[in-house]
Amino acid sequence: MTIRAFFAILLCKLLRFVSRVLHRGGTAMPGRYALKLCPNLLERLAKQVKTVAITGTNGKTTSARMIEEAFREQGLSYLTNRSGANLIDGITTEFVMNSSLLGRVKKDYAVIECDEAAARKVFPRLRPQVVVVTNLFRDQLDRYGEVTHTLENIREALRGAPEAKLCLNADCSLTASLAGDLPNPVRWFGVEQGAAPSRAKPEISDATHCIRCKTEYEYDYISYGHLGGFRCPKCGYRRHSADCAVTDIVEQRPDGSELVMNVRGEKLLVTVNLPAMYNIYNAAGAVAAVTEMGFPAQAAAEALRSFRCGFGRMERFDLAGGTRMMLVKNPAGCNQVIEYLQNFKEKFVLVICLNDRAADGRDVSWIWDADFEGLSALAGRLTQVIVSGDRAEDMRVRIKYAGVDDAFIRVERDYETLVRELEKETRPVCMMPTYTAMLELRQTVIRHCGGEDFWE
Fold it and tell me: DSSP letter string over 154-169?
């Protein structure tokens, strides 16, 4: 333990304390200053624990919560970046806050979600035992660039963690390609053909052509986006059979799903307490990760019934006739939320909040690629659409062009006014905010109806 490391830890703890007193969160800033004092601080701390890292475009926070719940039910001592601060600064903060002033980590395990671009810096320092790559979709083009650039970021990150066992999405042709030139052992997860109704063609695809030879893919089935039974008719690159496979989706409800999973020959009936297909994939990836860490598949499956969803990820609030908040940030994820809304049986109010700040991505043209036309199928159930956020007018235009009658669309920029009006609403409310809008709107909601701060 060096003097520099000691003072870095001390500074980080003091900054976190002051931030929490001021109700500012203090999730990333303390770690940023700690790393300035001691650049190798994360390596020093991370080598003391066994770590599961989760990266990918969609599903990082929810997958981390599922794995965390399995660890909790196993009675393990672990730390996690529950706040979603998934850059190197926020991850360092969490390690420091779970360490003594002398640099001894007080936990045995860590569950860490990591931003796709930050993984290049984080993984060589973290040296995780298991890495889950959830999926790869086009997201924040101004920050990540094209999806193949994100793929190369993750590939480079994994080269810095050659001992890690990889849990890869077999149904994502981009994610699956990571297995081709890395030495890491691979565990595959996915949804089998026939488990759920297949689409005739991708509603939107970020991977239409083979990543190896550029020939257009053929599909045996499609679950959503470009995920499914892909195969290249020219070079033979195709979906790998899954070790942790969803073999049947028995029921999908507004509050969850009933599944059958085959985990290396062990058949399990699984209840996932969140709805939508993308959470079924998150569940399969979480089970794969937990079992790769050496814990029973049954224990992982049981955790899916009781885990608490991440903030803003299908999160429920006691507001109006019941409110659910669903983060959206790219076309593929947005389409999954719209599909969930199409299965909503009762009349409801929809709130869509669009921001274009750095953490959201400055380019909001993605809203024209998302299938908002699906909202027009909700006539009779969708009683009102309220748009808000920095780019509320852009969203209003998009919803109007999607076929929703302009008489049903209203702009309300002030979150306080919006929430006060929703308190008088008796119908359920569904909220679709982008990331920074979600943080602000959520804070306003919990002031009115209670709830935990995003870092809790």
Answer: HHHHHHT-TTPEEEEE
